[in-house]
Amino acid sequence: MVLLAQATSNACHWAIRHFSSASRFRLEPVLSLITLSALLASAQLSATEQPLLTSSSKSDQAAPANLIEQQNLPVSSTAPMLGIFATDNVKFITQRAAYLEAQKLLPNTSSRQFIELKASLKGYPLEPYIDYRILSRKLSKLPYREVDEFLDANPNSYLGNRLLRDWLLTLERKQHWHDYQSYYRADLGDTDLACYHLKARLLTGDETAYTEVTNLWNVGRSQPKACDSLFKLWQNAGQQTAQLTWSRATQAIEAKNRSLTRYLAKYAPAEIKSKLDLLVEVDRYPEHMDQVRRFAEQSPEMQFIILHGIQRLARKDAGKALKLWERYDAQHLFADQKRIETQELLIAHLSRQGLTDKVTELAQSMSNYSNIDMISGLARDALANVEWELADKWIRRLPAEELNSSRWRYWSTRIAEIQGHSLPPYPDIASSYKALAKERSFYGFLAADRLGLPFELEDEPSKVTLNDQHFVANSASILRAKELFELGQINFARQEWRFASRQFSPQQLQAAGALAANWGWYRGGIQAMIDAQSWDDLTVRFPLAFESVVKAEAKNQAMDANLLFAIARQESAFSPDAKSPVGALGLMQLMPATAKQTAKKAGITYRKHDLLSPETNVALGSRYLNEMLGRFNGNPAFAAAAYNAGPHRVTQWLSQGRDQLPLDVWIETIPFKETRGYVQNVMVFSVIYAYRNGSDIESLKDTWYVPNPAQKQSQSTSLPAGQGSTVTNGAAAY
């Protein structure tokens, strides 16, 4: 009887959901669930514009009463951000202990103690987490009503989306395909769920889903295993054609997903299999491109194979690739853009392999260029060889937008200064440097130093309306993030924070950044200001995080605390629990092997987990950085490069006379793009932290000064090798 009643209830519930719009379809759309790995994939933060959504979600309206102190100002007026969020809710402080105890008792939710603790959490921001844990344990029993109640009580929230995902996976396992379609939302942004949704549509007779399956399949990457059964249905229905197989295989090979290309070739339709086998062959053995007769067929597919083979061969032997390219170019009618792209790639590899005569010959045969990386690389090669006229020639080949960047404006001016030329549109070189010196950037600081001008800092604290400040401080998601942060549950705090901030306006993001900084959650504050593109609030963007620890270790190591701050800011944005994909840990992103070696030298006992402690991490990181400074004569740019790329590489980059290059040239010609940007950032951050710490910024000028090449000989005895300037990536905002 119980089972019959349950089945009847479920059937009625299904009917209500399919023939009424009173429940599911009135929910506001929400953004995709953002995983923790997305926040921790790179230590270097990027300025990404966030979508702007309405800020009046049901979840936020349900927040507790205002927690910040009311001020005698109209809500439309503006005020400085830091210090206004100091009020804490005393009740929340007492509820934290009850919440932690309730979590421990979750296996026995019927106990009197748990029931009392649960009742005491009424109004506490993390109460839904207890409800979620209880409900998630019984989803297999299909508690439709309780799921609906939770989703309706927690719309537009991280936890609501999380339960919905769990629920959809349960419905998929139970093969309740109609219910799955009713609950599914595309804005969850989950490929597994999308595949199950398309499968549900096909199994319930909706053949229009085939087109969407095609689009999901035809990509240059492997899709998750959850999609396998869907793709099998699609293939059995005869949807996989030779044309689609070729399309996906070529996307995969261009994305360097060679295993997928080989898989597709192995099971390809007969009419395309031989060409895919040839594509896989030249990808693995590009030297087979010298068997010209095998590539004589005139077809788009063969042209793709030839172009790919030439590009692969160029990496190994650019000279041979160029000779073969000339033969193939005469035999096949390649599209103009493909010809240009191939020639530009050949030029780049010829240059790297030292075949400069071939570079000049091929470059002169081309009427235009489109590859900015190639042109920039050739300009850097010329700079590294102190060939100023050639460097200037390549710089002038850059597109106008790139040419007007801080990077190339600086180098055009620098070369003109060396050669004694004037520089249009500026009346003289000094005017060009003066314009650059107005920017808070690596090149701006360098230009200021050339003229003896002070560095431009442009420090302007954020000011937004009190209305936005109040809204953010009382957002339900932000309140949950705050409590999770206080409880040390940082992973969940990040999820709540990220979910909420994606719905904020730029002004609200600034308020959120100041709020996070006030908590001591420095990474959250930095990221919020980046998302808001609020570049001038240096207090939040460059916090004096873990100040006592950093300054104490700097003193112990007799090193500049500003450089230590700069390295930590660049490495982790002051996230103590940061973990990189390659295994670096903590504030200063130390590799365990490096930390172990450094600890042994210093006589410090530690465990790997201790690297997540700011005290241990900074103690070891500062010692390693100091070791790099000692190894490279105290030069902060060389030491920063060694910290990022390893001292052996820096030693190599300083060999063959390159240690005599002006420092701006040396940094600009660092072979690794990541390390170039890293060193530039650290140099700029050091200046900003000197300002934040009240240090004499002018005292840093010695580390920025760049002698002209003509001055090198006379100054080589008084200046450390390479002492001088720096570079940034042009588009970076500091």
Automatic annotation (TrEMBL):
Pfam families: SLT, SLT_L. Gene3D superfamilies: 1.10.530.10, Bacterial muramidases, Lytic transglycosylase, superhelical linker domain. The keyword Signal applies. It comes from the Bacteria. The keyword Translocase does not apply. Transmembrane segments: none annotated. Residues 711-734 are annotated as: Disordered. Residues 550-659 form the Transglycosylase SLT domain. Residues 473-538 form the Lytic transglycosylase superhelical linker domain. Keywords: Signal. PANTHER family: SOLUBLE LYTIC MUREIN TRANSGLYCOSYLASE, SOLUBLE LYTIC MUREIN TRANSGLYCOSYLASE-RELATED. Belongs to the transglycosylase Slt family. This is Transglycosylase SLT domain-containing protein. It comes from Simiduia curdlanivorans.
